[in-house]
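Before the break, one more example. Copy the sequence into your notebook; we will annotate it together after we see the structure.
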Amino acid sequence: MSIYEYDNEIVSEQLMPPRLRRPAQLSWLYVITSALQNLWALIFEDYRVGSSYADYDNSTAYSLQDRVRWTDKAIYECISPTTAGTLPNDATYWIKVNEVFIGTDERIKYSAQKLLFEFALNKFFITTGIYIQNNFLNTGDVFVMDTDSLESSVMPLDSFYQEDYMDYTATYATGVYDYTIFVPVAFYTSLGTNADLIIKTFAEKYNLAGMLYDIQTY
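Here is what the structure looks like once it is written out:
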């Protein structure tokens, strides 16, 4: 058992003197300590392990403490009974309790490694079919200086030819992407006009510094 395990019923019984451990007294103590149990569950279960709450249903009236996953992949808790159609961004009825439904135990393992990156994208967007294609970059126009001449670009003695490489303007290709994220066109369309921004907001968390990528549909 983890040192972080917490059960408010066990703790309540331990706090109550033995002679007072009757159902009525214990039930009263369970109620007043339930807030601690809920807070523990939010941190060590929902936040750390992850959430499996159902997606928000526009036709459902929610009750106090009901939780849902909304379109931004965050978890919201109902703080006041709602009528059907009360969106989770209405602060009068909802409060955001987790920024993302995927637990930290899983998210800390994500990286820019191709297979893992693809898994993370599909998991976060709750879809299938997103994949990454590494692109071959033609670096023939780039000047390379390595530790020896065998791995370095040619630098002619004549300054006339050096201008090809040493000019004030860059001679290497621009707008070239190291890899491309391919997404199904139906899924891309469902994200609306800000589809690229929505996908990049997540992808940028794991993209390696200096790596350029674009998003295409298929």
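The chain has three domains: 8-47, 51-104, 114-217. The longest strand covers residues 94-98. Try to locate both features in your own notes.
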